[in-house]
Design a protein that fits this description.
354 residues; alpha/beta; 5-stranded mixed beta sheet
């Protein structure tokens, strides 16, 4: 609003300039040290299959990508209120009293949307976070205007719609046909669900969740332990991979299949984080299982030792001896699909005295 108010333009320019200078001075050293590595890794990650459909910036899929995300996130009752709010916003723009406010809201919505849609080929849901306050204001304005226009009847209708939406999405008390729920966009909810190892329903967000067969890794470790005489504490080290494998995913699926939950064993994943530091040569051999994934490890700032560890592991998988992996046996290897254009290998190593 200060940018639209002539009396406040100088003040906004002054404080905005100081804020930009401060932010730049804080961020500049980090980008000077690590900027090239981050850019190179981002360029490599641009070939992931989840961003390929947006490479054609003039396509319908690209133009509607964020719109579909917003619609799916709002659900149809709030979407109806947002449409009403947007119509009223355009209508009030004709009135001098509301002209500046309406213009500000429209600029807040459309300029970031167009920039994110046509300036960047890679698409991620988190990029539209700056739009959410504007969408919330427009939606709440639509609800308020509907209640003013319809009074008691409108309030009752809105209340019933809101209650139905809350009950369906929040608790699953109303069982609609699956096709109807999908049409009404009520199938992506956080209510009561039946969680299974194959299709947990919720958990890791896109694109991380789309390692479709990552559950095989946790299943193998569980089966292997069930047929062994391993001790009460099992240490699993997952070598973090930038696209996208961490101990969190392995632990998530492991709990779903009962590993570390239905027996007396304690499963420790802490080495997965500790090996990012300098003394990884002493830490990694303490693990009972090592899980590794081929592919880009990202810039060194994300874990300066990860590329070296990955190179040693890959060489050991190819038969090279004389490494710390001599104390381990390669017991499992599979391809993970669903994210990268080229399928990558995930390997499980087991310490030989287990």
């Amino acid at each position: 609003q200060a940018l639209l108010d002539r009396d406040s333009q100088d003040r906004a320019l002054k404080y905005g300039s100081w804020a930009t200078l401060l932010a730049g001075s804080l961020a500049a050293p980090w980008y000077i040290l690590h900027g090239d590595e981050v850019l190179l890794s981002s360029e490599a990650a641009g070939f992931n299959t989840w961003s390929i459909p947006t490479q054609d910036l003039l396509s319908i899929q690209n133009f509607t990508y964020y719109f579909n995300l917003i619609v799916a996130g709002l659900s149809w009752p709030l979407l109806a209120a947002a449409v009403v709010g947007a119509i009223i916003l355009f209508w009030k723009r004709a009135h001098i009293k509301w002209r500046q406010t309406s213009l500000l809201m429209l600029l807040w919505l459309f300029i970031p949307y167009l920039l994110l849609t046509f300036l960047f080929s890679a698409k991620e849901a988190r990029y539209i976070l700056p739009l959410l306050p504007a969408i919330a204001l427009i939606t709440s304005g639509g609800i308020w205007q509907l209640s003013k226009l319809w009074r008691a009847v409108g309030g009752l209708v809105i209340g019933l719609i809101a209650l139905t939406w809350f009950v369906v999405t929040g608790f699953g008390w109303i069982n609609l046909p699956s096709k109807t729920e999908k049409t009404l966009r009520l199938d992506h909810t956080y209510g009561l669900q039946t969680i299974t190892p194959k299709q947990p329903g919720y958990g890791f967000t896109f694109p991380t969740k789309n390692h479709y067969n990552l559950t095989d890794v946790s299943n193998f470790i569980k089966d292997d332990l069930d047929h062994s005489e391993a001790g009460q504490k099992i240490s699993i080290a997952v070598i973090p991979n930038s696209i996208y494998l961490t101990s969190q995913q392995v632990q998530w699926y492991a709990l779903l299949v009962g590993l570390g939950r239905s027996d007396d064993r304690t499963i420790d994943y802490s080495l997965s984080s500790q090996i990012r530091f300098e003394n990884w040569q002493q830490l990694l051999p303490k693990s009972d299982y090592i899980v590794a994934k081929s592919g880009d490890q990202g810039p060194a700032v994300w874990g300066q030792n990860l590329k070296e560890i990955s190179d040693i592991e890959s060489a050991a998988a190819d038969g090279q001896v004389g490494t710390m992996f001599d104390e381990y046996t390669l017991v499992y290897e599979t391809l993970v699909i669903g994210i990268e254009k080229e399928a990558r290998s995930v390997r499980i190593w087991r310490r030989r005295n287990k």
